[in-house]
Design a protein that fits this description.
A hairpin with a 4-residue loop joins strand 15 and strand 16. The strands form 8 sheets. The protein has a 6-stranded mixed sheet. Helices cover 35% and strands 25% of the residues. The chain is built from 12 helices and 25 strands. The protein is α/β, with parallel strands linked by helices. The protein has 3 domains: 191 residues, FAD/NAD(P)-binding domain; 140 residues, FAD/NAD(P)-binding domain, CATH 3.50.50.60; 62 residues, no CATH class.
């Protein structure tokens, strides 16, 4: 029995166990196990839509237990605590779903271990961020942002917040997550002002996007940044560039130049780092944000039996280029590569080297608009870009559900969209 254990059921981890399960999970001498601290999976690039309420979480989440049964792998609910390389085992903490005070540590042995733990927000030790900002790393955090917005709007409707008061939303971080989130929240506000919360038209709701760089989306081309800034300005977003945040409290965002900005809701999207469990691990070579360093085979520097992929892996394929970024397409390509590579490993064949194929980047600006770079720096805009953006999610669904089920999911989503449009809620 060869025991493959994958820790982390995000985009990369779930696609990996799905492909492995479909290819070799039925074999009696193969055991495939997915360990995750959640019960369900939601594609992380869509969390900004969950935060605005435009994504139905219940309809788009994948139940790990059901999915594991359908695709020939085992699922264990728990969070990674430690790795024992000598014993080839991991310790996971399991918390009772009925009584969270009941916890236990369970050991799981492996022959091949794959870490696909993703990333979390990096607050860069800025004072007050942890206490006064929301983050967008998980379904629960997305729901908290949505609940805060919704309850604030309801207070305005009930006149708990006086009509003459302003309501300020500040997003700190001008990367793709920050841009997509602020676009979604503005669309939500506009739709609510037309339908359920008409009182919003009497209150000035302000949106500010803050970034320390010279332009938004600094990882993309200047032309894309310019187009995004133009679109956000047309939406009424106040864009602050070259603005370094020095501290945050309950009422304000403070900057290194001594100025400050009032904000009722503050969301931090300014950077990422590896999860705390990787930061605490000993005996592994890591980068400055605690990602595990891996070779082009995706094996860690520290142990050939331990692989890492996606956001938690520092994968530098060429010394002349920076490590691969924390992007869904990187995790997806690595999952597809590793599924076939691990089969080579089982057959004692030489492991191949991962090669990343850049397919471009697309940033959503709401339900009908997007901008992006595809096919060797070809820029696309508007509804065409939005259609391409939606196709990325469908591709992820194909990878974890198969084509036939994805077609059915698309039909269901289209019917739900048309119903919402009928009532002017989309």
């Amino acid at each position: 029995m060869h025991r493959i254990v994958v820790v982390g059921g995000g985009a990369g981890g779930l696609e990996l166990v799905t492909k492995l399960g479909d290819l070799i999970g039925h074999k009696e001498n193969i055991s495939i196990t997915l360990v995750d601290a959640g019960l369900t999976h939601v594609w992380k690039p869509l969390l900004h839509e969950a935060a605005s309420g435009s994504l139905d979480l219940a309809a788009n989440e994948v139940n790990y237990l059901v999915h594991s049964h359908q695709h020939n792998y085992n699922y264990v609910y728990g969070s990674l605590v430690d790795i024992n390389k000598d014993k080839k085992s991991i310790d996971i903490e399991i918390i009772s779903l009925m009584n969270p005070e009941i916890k236990c540590i369970r050991s799981i042995e492996y022959d091949t271990l794959v870490l696909a733990l993703g990333s979390k927000s990096n607050d860069f030790n800025v004072a007050g961020v942890k206490e006064h900002c929301y983050f967008l790393d998980s379904q629960d955090q997305a729901k908290k942002i949505h609940d805060n917005i919704f309850m604030s709007y309801f207070d305005m409707k009930q006149q708990v917040i006086p009509a003459q008061s302003d309501y300020h939303v500040a997003i700190i971080g001008g990367g793709a997550t920050g841009v997509e989130l602020i676009s979604e929240l503005i669309n939500l506000k506009n739709k609510m002002a037309e339908t359920l919360f008409k009182e919003l038209s009497q209150i000035k709701v302000k949106f500010t996007l803050i970034d320390s760089s010279e332009r938004l989306l600094s990882g993309l081309s200047p032309s894309i940044s310019k187009e995004v800034e133009k679109n956000l300005a047309a939406m009424g977003v106040n864009i602050l560039k070259n603005a370094r945040v020095s501290a945050i409290d309950a009422d304000k965002v403070y900057f290194s130049d001594g100025s400050a900005l009032e904000a009722n809701l503050k969301v931090w999207t300014a950077g990422i780092k590896a999860p705390q469990v990787l930061e605490d691990l000993n005996g592994f070579e890591k980068d400055n944000i605690h990602r595990l360093k891996v070779y082009a085979t995706l094996q860690t520097y520290s142990d050939p039996n331990i692989f890492a992929l996606g956001d938690c892996a520092h994968c530098q394929l060429d010394a002349a280029h920076p490590p691969l970024g924390a992007r869904a397409q990187v995790a997806s390509q690595q999952a597809e590569f590793l599924a076939l590579s691990l089969i080579n490993r089982l057959e004692n064949k030489k492991l191949p080297m991962f090669k990343f194929v850049e397919k471009g980047s697309i940033v959503s600006l709401g339900k009908e608009q997007a901008v992006g770079e595809v096919l060797n720096e070809l820029n696309i805009y508007g509804k065409l870009a939005r259609t391409a953006y939606d196709a990325l999610y469908r591709l992820h669904q194909v990878n974890i559900h198969g084509l036939n089920q994805t077609v059915q999911l698309h039909k269901r989503d289209s019917a739900a969209k048309n119903l919402l449009k009928k009532f002017k809620l989309y």
